[in-house]
Amino acid sequence: MQKKEMRVVGRGYLLDIYEQIGKILKSESLEEVMKYTYGILRNPAFVVDMGHNVLAYTNVDVDSERWQRIVIEGKLAKNFVDGNIHLNAEHARAMHSDKALLLRKTFEGEDQIKKSLIWDGQELGMLMVLPYHKELEESDLKYVDLVGDIITYKLVSHQGMLYKNETQKKRFFSSMLEGVEYTEDTIQTRLKFMQVKFRKYLYVMVGSVGKNNYEGTVEEHIDLRELNSQNLGVALLYNTNLVMILSFDKPLRDYAEILNSMPDFLKRQNFVCGISSRFTNISDLRKNHLDAVRALQYGIRLRGDRPIYCFHDFILYEMFERVPDAELIHYIHPDIMKLRKYDEQKGTELCQTLQIYLDNNTSQAKTAEILYIHRNTVNYRLNQCMQIMETDFKERAELTVFLISLYILEYLDNK
């Protein structure tokens, strides 16, 4: 009688497992998946990604400081495996196995089951089961394998299941901005997690509200979900500023193209932005973010008349930063110094006119448009410049030296 009763109980348990599996298959969030996972495994479990971030866990009562620390508080981190040579070897073995492994007494004297989540040869993360409600047995492994395979499929195939909000996305890209280095395989895996697909050419744009409020906060002015829904790339908040990783099929060739790439509602809200030069490898994100920040700083300090500033327009200023001011002055062409002295004595704006003229490929029409003056006035001023400097502006090499000299003056005037 007792044996028969045990069989009935066993059959009922199996029916319950099949019911829980059916619920997992219908689940639309990772939290739901983990809820029904508990119904199958009868032990608390959690899922981590390749960066050791806890993505979801079985929300049941667990009387363990370790569970609170590594799961609830999300402090799994690398020290979970790096602090013990034996554990590190066991972890590596589990990560390269397509089957769940029961590991005995590996961490703080506890058993655990580890199931590597692998898709198309790529390791995505790990399902981990701990013996806080019942002892772990070899018979548990087949169910961990089943659940782990379902979780892996859902993570890859269901849009947004792994990163159903912006928190995980921000954590990953913020860590890259802070200098954390990942292997190329890890980066590609994480992008696959987040359903992020970058096009060939990348740019980093850093923005804030108001032309004179570079350090201002932007939380009240933008909706990251709206930005991320525009298929421009990835948007996040970092160090109180908006950071956008933009991607395009073709490189942005000029200021107009770059300006057009800026979302319309950012323009309406008086955003001012710095944008990096283009790059093609997301692992170069940190460097190009710093370039975008520098472009924003230079633009506000030196120009202050545009909604967006490009780093490649300020490369010379980056060079000037590396030269002491006293030495930098010696690189200014004597004829430009003559023109500068004339401006100071007469109250004219010949240096500014000449700089804009040279900066716009010697176009008088463009110079007139930028300065809001008649083209005849531009021609008159340029003739004045040639008389004072005793040159005819026909030598391209000389014009290049004049333009660099004018950049140096602008840089020193605005320090």
Question: What does this entry look like structurally?
Answer:
The protein is of the alpha+beta class. The protein has 19 helices and 10 strands. The protein has helices at 2-26, 30-41, 65-72, 79-82, 85-95, 140-157, 166-177, 184-193, 224-228, 255-261, 264-268, 285-303, 315-321, 325-328, 334-346, 350-359, 364-371, 375-389, 396-413; strands spanning 45-49, 54-57, 101-107, 110-119, 122-129, 201-209, 233-238, 241-248, 271-275, 308-310. The strands form 2 sheets. The protein has a 5-stranded antiparallel beta sheet with strand order 2-1-5-4-3, with helices on both faces. The chain is elongated, with a radius of gyration of 31 Å.
Number of helices: 19
pLDDT averaged over residues = 81
Task: Provide the helix percentage.
Answer: 40-55%
Radius of gyration: 31 Å
Secondary-structure-based class equals alpha+beta
Largest sheet: 5 strands, antiparallel
**Element string (H = helix, E = strand):** HHEEHHHEEEHHHEHEEHHEHEHHHHHHH
Low-confidence stretches are 1-9, 77-88, 159-165, 211-216
Strand order of the largest sheet: 2-1-5-4-3
Number of strands: 10
Instruction: Please state roughly what percent of the residues sit in beta strands, choosing from under 5%, 5-15%, 15-25%, 25-35%, 35-45% or over 45%.
Output: 15-25%
Tell me the distance between the termini.
Answer: 92 Å
Q: Describe the global form.
A: elongated
